[in-house]
């Protein structure tokens, strides 16, 4: 019997039956375009459906960048300026992104029926496992603004093993006190919902200056076809519970954090560094995307990702060994902010972090 020889034939991208190489190439190009444009999904949760858009493909052994927007915005109006910024492309090429729209905030969302019970911020956080299960993603790096930052923090407290890092912009971890509640009720008698939300998004100085950016977002909020939905999200934000962060206690974020605002005194100083950013207003992801991008790159490097990335805009001074988190203290004068500069949010004594100073 003739000796049999084993021949192994491999094909990296096998064609479908009847498919020509030209058709396969066109299909691959169409798939790439679709990924660049983002793929929108909707998943049912115990608290209603939630929409999210995925850009890129999962990278081996890398978390997904997972964003959550503030009140009055959706993922596009909150994050598009940041993620379309030129220097950000180096980051997004290395990570898959998931942009969540809070229920009823997505473009073209129908208005909820009268009497609809909108989820609390805690319940919005409880929707996140359904999204990750649907996508089969195990870990994330969260990027949140305002209400979105609170939601991601709440999620990180209850699911610490799935959160590798957090970028929290303009987070208020505290529930509204009696004085805040009274001021909010009084403002509600004299101001419209769009005006109150704009006061949440921008500083009084920015609103008085009435820049093109403020005018743009005033128009977005005032003429939003889903304004009733936005009001429901706004009410949930104002009824949030205290996150009860305790430095050195059981309730604190276990992951590296890049923090933009005032609750630095409640985070672990051994996990915290500082970036001082001036003249960025209430929405730094819109007004200073370049500097925020550079800070984000540095943050990722501290976590062990993108080691070869070049830092071009930040002047850094090392005050201790590299930590894997960054805290951004943003100089601004928003009415809901407890501190207006890094001096008013001084950390208690503890190991120093890493200082990054940005000149505007």
TrEMBL record:
Residues 331-360 are annotated as: Disordered. Keywords: Cytoplasm, Developmental protein, Differentiation, Neurogenesis, Wnt signaling pathway. InterPro entries: AB_hydrolase_fold (IPR029058), NDRG (IPR004142). Pfam families: Ndr. It is found in: Cell projection, Growth cone; Cytoplasm. One of its GO terms (biological process) is cell differentiation. The keyword Cell cycle does not apply. The keyword Cytoplasm applies. Gene3D superfamilies: alpha/beta hydrolase (3.40.50.1820). SUPFAM superfamilies: alpha/beta-Hydrolases (SSF53474). Its main location: other. GO terms for cellular component: cytoplasm; growth cone. Contributes to the regulation of the Wnt signaling pathway. Down-regulates CTNNB1-mediated transcriptional activation of target genes, such as CCND1, and may thereby act as tumor suppressor. May be involved in dendritic cell and neuron differentiation. Belongs to the NDRG family. PANTHER family: N-MYC DOWNSTREAM REGULATED. This is Protein NDRG2. The lineage of its organism: Eukaryota, Metazoa, Chordata, Craniata, Vertebrata. The gene is LOC102834111.
